[in-house]
Q: What sequence folds into this?
């Protein structure tokens, strides 16, 4: 069931990108790049003896063009697509008996340009998808590989790419980007790996022989002003601290995925077709073993008590492309009782995407990733709701 859920996550992102725009002239991309990992959790001190491994891949995509609409022009005629890449991380020598494996990535991508001329374009690239490694954590045979707690995990990437048309429908590009691999804490441990990749490649266009420019477009109809949204979300969370407690007491070698659920309300003010800002409040239930873990690791209970319920509030920023919204939230826990050893913190961050079945109001579905300390994935939350 976990594998099906991660596959659905990657498929959802690709489907939303394609549904959110009018396909233009097909473009195909083939690229090769080299990566250098700068992981902040001691990857090299614990496992590896040297830096650097290659990442090789290919991608196909659709380029929007003049006439596709206001949103395409507002984002300077972006390109959307699907990519595959292979990282030979397994070639790195490691210390001791633990192992790392190669990584295979399948992802949706989008490129937006800040600068564009007939022969040159420059702007950010976003990636979201699914990764697989044949080697994962095992309490007996691979105990030090805490970076990949499962074989399947998510990929989230962002970077900057410069591209130059050197001959008609052919172009060359250089880019630098950061990629984060994580299973969203659906299975512990999940330290994750951050890759900083610098590379380049070539692209073959099957349409025009220069980058598109467009004239004025009529602003689309949208409901300016205040919007209310009510939503529910669900997912699972596997706790690494609980795993430490189980290993300390000898009661198991893996922490089970425990149910999460929440309901919430959002208030946003949409002040342009592209931007909206607002507030979010939600409360949820998180099945746990906080008390048992404290007894195993600390030998005592938290005098404040324990609760599976929590309440939080946050600041929200949305970026719209037609009926798709990408969302950033920074929030604070107003109530939580997680015990002595659970390291959750007082604040959280969310990155999410939603598809709205109507541009103005109505039902929506989406996916959020909740994180702590800006780099620590906590849970993936599948979301459904209604926007007023």
A:
């Amino acid at each position: 069931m976990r594998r099906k859920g991660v596959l659905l996550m990657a498929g959802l992102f690709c489907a939303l990108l394609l549904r959110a725009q009018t396909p233009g002239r097909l473009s195909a991309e083939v690229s090769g790049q080299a990566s250098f990992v700068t992981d902040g959790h001691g990857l090299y001190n614990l496992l590896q003896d040297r830096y650097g491994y290659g990442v090789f891949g290919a991608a196909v995509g659709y380029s929007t063009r003049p006439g596709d609409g206001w949103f395409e022009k507002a984002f300077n005629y972006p390109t959307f697509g699907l990519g595959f890449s292979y990282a030979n991380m397994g070639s790195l020598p490691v210390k001791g008996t633990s192992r790392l494996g190669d990584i295979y990535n399948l992802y949706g991508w989008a490129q937006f340009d800040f600068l564009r001329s007939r022969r040159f374009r420059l702007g950010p690239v976003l990636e979201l998808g699914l990764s697989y490694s044949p080697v994962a954590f095992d309490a007996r045979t691979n105990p030090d590989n805490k970076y990949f707690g499962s074989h399947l995990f998510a990929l989230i990437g962002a970077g900057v790419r410069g591209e130059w048309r050197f001959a008609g429908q052919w172009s060359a590009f250089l880019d630098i980007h950061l990629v984060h691999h994580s299973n969203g804490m659906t299975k512990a441990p999940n330290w994750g790996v951050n890759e900083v990749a610098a590379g380049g490649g070539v692209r073959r266009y099957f349409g025009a022989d220069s980058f598109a420019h467009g004239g004025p477009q009529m602003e689309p109809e949208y409901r300016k002003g205040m919007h209310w949204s009510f939503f529910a979300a669900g997912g699972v969370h596997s706790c690494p601290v609980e795993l430490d407690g189980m290993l300390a007491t000898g009661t198991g070698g893996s922490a089970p995925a425990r149910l999460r659920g929440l309901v919430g309300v959002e208030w946003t003010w949409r002040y342009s077709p592209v931007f909206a800002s607002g507030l979010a409040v939600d409360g949820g239930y998180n099945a746990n073993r906080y008390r048992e873990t404290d007894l195993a690791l600390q030998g005592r209970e938290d005098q404040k008590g324990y609760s599976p319920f929590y309440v939080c509030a946050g600041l929200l920023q949305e970026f719209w492309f037609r009926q798709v919204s990408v969302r950033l939230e920074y929030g604070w826990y107003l109530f939580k009782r997680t015990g002595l050893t659970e390291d959750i913190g007082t604040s959280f961050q969310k990155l999410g995407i939603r598809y709205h079945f109507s541009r103005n109001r109505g039902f929506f579905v989406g996916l959020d990733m909740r994180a702590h300390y800006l780099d620590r994935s906590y849970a993936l939350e599948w979301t459904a709701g209604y926007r007023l």
